[in-house]
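Just scan my protein:

——
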Amino acid sequence: MAYIDGFVIAVPTANKQKFIDHANKGDSVFMEWGATRVLECWGDDVPAGKQTDFQRAVQARDDETVVFSWIEWPDKATRDAGMEKMMKDPRMNPETNPMPFDGKRMIYGGFAPVVELASDAYLDSLAASGPGAGHREPAPDTRPGH
């Protein structure tokens, strides 16, 4: 069963390219240690809420943009082993690959998926990306008349 690590951070908007460079360097390590996919998403339409919102969750300032990221792993065991290796990997050393954001305000957690839906086009794109990629048993079509 897949496993997901999710992250929300506030990045100084002026550091967008530094963040992208940092992510490209670090995310390749996650892939090397077993992750199947990593997404780093720069806030584009992140509304303020009445009770809470992404900005408040990470104490984002006016000059910061919220970033929502996740790492997909094939299972929790691979994630646990990969994270252990990643923590020891010299490429992840903050002295050589400094975070261009305040890591103390990052929120993160590990999640076990309970529902997953995907379009045929998405699954086809995964299958086209390489041997074994995107292989899933098709779900039965339960729509009336199908």
Summary: Residues 134-141 have pLDDT under 50 and may be disordered. Helices lie at 16-32, 54-57, 76-88, 120-128. Residues 3-128 form a domain with the Alpha-Beta Plaits fold (CATH 3.30.70.100). Strands lie at 3-12, 37-42, 64-73, 107-111.
